[in-house]
Amino acid sequence: MDVLKQLLGRLHPLIVHLPIGFIILGLLLQWYDRKRLTYQNVIPLIYLWAGISATLACITGYLQYLGEGYAFDTIKWHLWSGIATALFSFLMYAKFKTFSEKYFLAKIPLAALSVIFFLLISFTGHQGGNITHGEDYLVEPLPNSVKSALGFETFEEKEIALNEENWENALIYEDVVKPILNNKCVSCHNPKKTKGELLLHNPEGILKGGENGEVLIANNASKSEIFSRMNLPMEDDDHMPPEGKTQPSKEEIRLVGAWIDAGHPFEGTIKEIGLPQELFLSFFPKNEEKDHPDMEIAVASKDSILAIEKIGVHVDLISKASNFLSVSCVNKPSFSDSDFESLLSIKNQIAKLDLGGTQVTDSIFAKLATLPNLTILKLDNSVITGSTIDEISSLEHLKSINLIGTEFETSNLEKLADFKNLRKVYVYGSKVNPENIVTFKEGEIHVDYGNYELPPLASDSIVY
Amino acid sequence: MEELIQRLLQEKLARDTQVKTRRHFIKNCAQGLGGLALSSIFAGCDPLGKPKQTSQISFSERDLNPLATLAPPFGPKVKSVIYLHMAGAPSQLEMFDYKPALQKLSGQDCPQSLLEGKKFAFIKGTPKLLGPQAEFKQEGESGNWVSNFMPHFKKVVDEVAFLKAVHTDQFNHGPAQLFMHTGSARLGRPSIGAWATYGLGSENQNLPGFVVLTSGGNTPDAGKSVWGSGFLPSVYQGVQCRSEGDPVLYIEDPDGITRDLKKSTIDAINKINKEEYAKYADPEILARINQYEMAYRMQIAVPEVMNINSEPENIKQMYGVEPGKESFANNCLLARKLVEDGVRFVQLFDWGWDTHGNVREGSIDLGLRNKCREIDRPIAALILDLKRRGLLDETLIVWGGEFGRTPMQENRGNTKMAYMGRDHHGDAFTMWMAGGGIKKGALHGKTDDIGFSGIEGQVSVHDVHATILHLLGFDHEQFTYEFQGRNFRLTDVEGQVIKEILA
Predict the structure, then answer these.
(1) Is the ipTM of this complex over 0.90?
(2) Candidates 3.40.50.300, 3.10.129.10, 3.80.10.10, 3.30.1300.30; correct CATH number of A302-448?
(3) pLDDT 10s digits, B297-311
């Protein structure tokens, strides 16, 4: 008898779809037939079947509840709404049958009943679905932003926020390892959904391991499954996270490995554990190398640009993403110091200035100091000596100066030490002596002397 | 006069019928009807009832000068591209993709599992595996592998980012070259350089925006379409310059025509054209005026920039140039000069890399070594020379062939070949990029133990294109050109930027 009970119980997921189908069919037919009224005899019949099959579904459902050991709290809403659906089916049947005219039913509009019926069957079905597939079944595929907007708990934590200043003081587990695990692992390894009986949302779970035992072997990343599985090839069935889920980056995997090799501490800062900075570099904010200052600037007037282009100087937007301009004299070799005045109308927008191969002299530097956002400066193949180059030391965005093929003197190189943001200086082919290598600001300013050579090799002349 | 207008109208009609398709007609019908309906609605709404303004002819600077510079949508990492194509497909297994396991298996039959369902250009039956014919060492701080065929390249290995698992679906030179340069193995698409100059124009108004230089005694099998403009306006196609003789054919004034006479001729023609423009206000006329003037300027500028004799002796030695001859070294030096002068895209083709093993020149242990020697010093010199001029930060260098070569020895016609050679192979081959926005010393992609196929970081030709466009400041999915009723992209419907090799 118990066997029969359990078997019948297990037929519940099958039988429930009968009343759902009948009810939806009935409602659709009702809507379709609202004007013609030609199927009015069929609809009550459908609702009768709906009621009968719903009753069967209730019985099998109850048996399943008894047989499969669900907690009453889990299923109570589904149970009561299921019974309500069965009763409502008979009620709809009655509404359609003529004998209902004598009863209170006649006073309730059919449309209202139909809407309630539809809501009821949807609610019941959804509750049932939640029991079999889990409450987050429908929500899970949604992006995290939508999930949290809908009020569901997500395990996605803040991005790893490290930078040049704070990285050593960040907590190794709380600020680094935990966000990685939360972003990439915890959606399947949490108290609600515990794949492989493994919990990765807290230290206890991580230490306890899963159905295959421990996932962490202290100081041995390659033997620790949590690490080795992430390193398996994508095709491997044991690869984690499984195909289709967001994969951790190479840097994240490497970091988890380094953390395990350091004895997987859950407390302490990066400094205390002594992990090297290069492990964390990829989590630092990207200093995107740009050819202009990282700020907004007003758009340059079209007339000023046209006026400058008229004298043969090219003026171009660096990109459509900003209003900064690149100015080039590639087709204006006659450009001289006195022509500079023409550029003043766009002085705030000039970020790149190419005066290579022009007639400018050292007195250009005083004028260049009036371009507050100058970032990249080319003065190559001009006659400047750099005696007054310190005039532009106030340009706080200036990153690169090209002085190749100029008369620039070795002694003037030292004047660059005061430049705030200067990174690169090119002096190949100038008067600067490449033997006399100057480093200043601890190598922060890279001077490229350009004395690269490719000495002849014996193989250069061997013909095979 | 009236007769002239009649003739012009007729010509326009004839042109239109050639160009317009049924699709245009249907589209115009739909727009026309919609427009009619809308105009009647709007006319009724206009409270002031202003008379309609007659439409004015408007044109942009682009109409007048098709090579005028345009800003890219996003911040560009590079201004120019130098693309080095080794036509014929170099053997990655003798240059960069070190496979010690292949050495051990050398001489053994290739496993059937690898051959099943594969098509090769010449290999028949069961070929034998062939170990690398070069010695490899890890070089530089990056520790990337370089063979002894490229001794000078070792010096710049930390500047480049390798793509070890590029794949293509073409295994014959012509289609594969077309695919590599136009994103399609069939004719008719614009080349990368054409897309770049169409999208960005070119800075130097005295030089072409897209220059092509060839060496190795031949031009690519796919013909000039590999630098063609496809459906883009033909002004964007590559201009082939020569390092031997006149840099551009017919650039010299003919005998007896002086520079002054030329100038006054062009002035006279332009004067007539300007009168025409005053009459018809057709921007095409302005474009023509502009082209005449540009051609005149180019007559001076091109021979100047193409003259490598003016370079200092140490530079010539560094590149290993041979002035007056056609050589890859000359072309590398020219490429630097062109980029230095603001040319947008320089495309180099070097012919002679098809190492099947049928002749001495086409053997992987002898002929290939000679080819490697011809490019080794020039490439290293190009990278270093750009670097010291501050140009490497704003230039992208791309190196590669149209596909790679098999780990098996070629057995053309199921016979033993005269020399050691490898067949065409598109499943996995090596390319590299260097320059602005590229992660120095990076390595992306990995091939299996014998170098047959990619097992990690596989990238397609479309991915390479997407990356080049990305570095120039484009989103390859947004950069389109409407042709025959649909928007075309260089990457068609594929391609992903290879982030792993970006700085």
Answers:
(1) no
(2) 3.80.10.10
(3) 888 888 888 888 889
